[in-house]
Amino acid sequence: MSLSDKGAKEGEAIQIKPQELRIRLRPNSVQKLKVEFRQAVDYPIDLYYLMDLSNSMADDKAKLAMLGNKLAAEMKTITTNFRLGFGSFVDKTVAPYVNSHPDKFSTERVSGNLIGTVELQVEVSGMIRGYYDKLGGIIAPNDERCHLDKKGYYTMSSELDYPSLSQINKQIRDHKINMIFAVTSDQVFLYDKLSKRLAGSSTGKLESDSSNVVDLVRQQYDKITSAVEMTDDVDETNIRLSYYSSCLGYHKYQLHEDLVKFYRQFTLPEPVTFEVNLEYAFCPQEASERRRTFHIFPVGLHDQLTIHLEMMCECDCEKPENGEAFSPKCSGGNGTFECGICNCNAQRYGKECECDASDTDPFLEVKGCFNGDDSRPCSGLGKCRCGRCFCDPRANPDEKIYGKYCECNNYSCDKKDGKICSGPDHGVCDCGDCKCMKGWKGEDCSCRDSIESCMGPNGEICSGNGHCDCGACVCSSEEQEYFGTYCHDCATCPGMCGELRDCVECFITYQKNPARNCSACASLTIWPIEKIEVREKEKLCSFEDEMKCRFTFKYAFDQDNQLLVWTKMVKECPEPVDLIAIVSGVSGGVVATGLFLLMLWKLLTVIHDRREWAKFEKERLMAKWNQGQNPLYKEVETTYQNPAYGGTAKSMEFTE
């Protein structure tokens, strides 16, 4: 039938579809059902207002009488098919709950409209106020019957205990009731707790004089009708119903947490859809128990989906004459092998009847397959059966997954050169960690557990300049940075030039003369280069051979402290001596030197003479002489007169 709105009577409106299903299902198979629900417009409502008529509620009773018409008018805005009832109650009429003095009864009026289901609500209200039946000596369990006399009085109040919460829940489900607890603010917290234990119930805050009762009823009604809670009456653990719903505007179904089957905040007349997964774990032994009828329904409404389940537990091949009872194929006789599968005996389940239901709940068994906070059963690498993990096989037969939760394997360990744990001769992988063989260590078992390879030429471990790790020297860099296979080299150390000289020279010669034997240097790798450029941590070496030819090479150590050598393949030899050129050069040099010295002497002599002459001229010019006659000066001409000469005087004179 299609969804429909109001009808003349309650139940004529169709709010859920489908309304009836017949399902044939095999054990451990899941049948998905689509259940559509829509809140009917103008759906009939019966509002029964139940009130405590103790003396403390006198003002509330008067206020309700004043607001009765308003409450009815407000409810008619919700639906035209509305009925309003009123009931009252007091506590059990035995001490200490009431004052039994005759004068107290004369003024009390009691409604005669109490019905069986409402009587249970009355009893609950009395219980929640905190009165305990032990004080009145009433210990007989409530029998869930009405017990009203012709005048409407409850006759078993002083004989039967208050109903339990489970009894109230049963009546709520059977009679499709929604309960609203209207209590004062100091009681809201307590009744909130109670409403969580009662299906379809809610709590509202009532003013001390009940003046807000109309608004409270309307608010709580809107709250109830804005959410739908789907439930069922399945009362056995073999049948399991899982509920999913899709929110408005979304098409993805979500499983309700803790199987609380709610759909909130839908709007009329929008339909909402629930997806229900139906399954059962095993077939009952009795054929009469293989047909079940149960209902799925919204809490507080009479609409329901009736499901007739037929458990498919037999095929032609399942007939007794065709089955192998207590078959060894079914975990050593724990079931009957028929139709290619195991039909398990009582209290056994699983593909091969390997699980014992007396030890493990079929629906809770998966809990034993979770490893701590891991949200995946069996770590996502296995299947959970009987509360135990059965790990998945690997395509590679050498690879295994194992462990209680399939958390271990033998293939996810560290690798070296593509080999797990550096190969089977170095170690084996166990639960993600390498277990190294003797003589090996490290995360991937690639390190030698020995110091022999770290012994330097001087007999010390790493030449005393480092420590041995993984069969190799780790050089110290505190005082001075050392490097080399045995930490024997540093920036200021003499180095290995002398040790490498013969091998490098042999390598250069071998390229030109392959007949030369260089087998002693076979462990040394030398790289030829055209030009040598020395970088950081590289050392330059240069030597002359017997022909005075120079060859140059360099060496360094890589990150693994392996020695690397590079050399120029061409020796640098001196040119042949040219004697003629040397003699000519020397002779020319001597002559040139002599001429140069002669010219230099001449130049110096001239310079000296000129300086002396200049000095003389200067002294001469500066000299001052007297005007007297030099006594040593003698005139050029001297005249002598001979006194004995008698001639004239003039003729007797001569001049020298």
From TrEMBL:
Sequence intervals crossing the membrane: 579-601
Major subcellular location class: membrane
Pfam families recorded: EGF_integrin, I-EGF_1, Integrin_b_cyt, Integrin_beta
A cellular component annotation (GO) from this entry: membrane raft
MF-aspect GO terms: integrin binding; metal ion binding
Membrane topology type: Single-pass type I membrane protein
Keyword Ribonucleoprotein: no
Database matches in InterPro entries: EGF_integrin_1, EGF_integrin_2, Integrin_b-2_sf, Integrin_bsu, Integrin_bsu_cyt_dom, Integrin_bsu_tail, Integrin_bsu_tail_dom_sf, Integrin_bsu_VWA
SMART domains: INB, Integrin_b_cyt, Integrin_B_tail
Start and end residues of each Integrin beta subunit cytoplasmic domain: 602-648
Similarity comment: Belongs to the integrin beta chain family.
Protein name per UniProt: Integrin beta
Source organism: Argiope bruennichi (Wasp spider)
